[in-house]
Amino acid sequence: xxxxxxxxxxxxxxxxxxxxxxxxxxxxxxxxxxxxxxxxxxxxxxxxxxxxxxxxxxxxxxxxxxxxxxxxxxxxxxxxxxxxxxxxxxxxxxxxxxxxxxxxxx
Length: 106
Description:
Blueprint: H1 8-14, H2 19-25, E1 41-43, E2 51-54, E3 60-62, H3 69-75, H4 80-86, E4 100-102
Antiparallel strand pairs: 1-2, 3-4
Helix pairs in contact: 1-2
């Protein structure tokens, strides 16, 4: 991987998209670096904000302050039930910053 692999503008240009559309589809703020190994969603058609193509996928997520199981499941477009099962968690589980969650079946 090169530094350009982690640049939203380069990723957007490679798919003929506006950077703001790519950021919006991925629920990412402007100015944030593209993830090293994360789900990156790309709309099927320019102008569409319906994600359709997965460019890359992370196997884990490191919990940040304010993260919830629901928000993590939504961010990675996972079923909450799957995220809970893969991490031996339940709806009442408390996340701790730095905790690492699985994003796929072990």
